[in-house]
Write a structure and sequence with these properties.
With 89 residues, the protein is an all-alpha fold. The chain has one domain (6-87). Helices cover 61% and strands 0% of the residues. It contains four helices and no strands. The protein has helices at residues 6-11, 22-26, 35-49, 60-87. Helix 3 runs antiparallel to helix 4. The radius of gyration is 15 Å and the shape is elongated.
């Protein structure tokens, strides 16, 4: 069975097209301030890393970038949630 190309997965809606955009990849990453938007972006990035094509050598750098941005959102959420819980004490 042939491995689907990323354009096929994008066309079917499995992987967001923006992650293959070189401008997005090189742009400074800003975590959305809205928690709902952060969660949505987080799951889009996580889902994208689960597709088999991301584990091909040609997508290694992109996969590393996605994982770094996922970790950044995780860290932001941890700090944010800690700040919110401390403010309620």
């Amino acid at each position: 069975m042939a491995v689907p190309k990323h354009k096929e997965l994008v066309a079917k809606g499995f992987i967001p097209a923006f992650i293959f955009d070189p401008k997005w990849q090189k742009k400074d990453f800003a975590v959305p301030s809205s928690k709902a938007k952060r969660i949505s972006l987080y799951y889009k990035l996580v889902e994208a890393t689960h597709y088999g094509i991301m584990w091909l050598s040609q997508y290694r750098e992109l996969r590393v970038l996605l994982q770094a941005r996922i970790a950044f959102i995780d860290a932001y959420n941890a700090v944010y949630d800690n700040a919110v819980s401390n403010s309620k004490k």
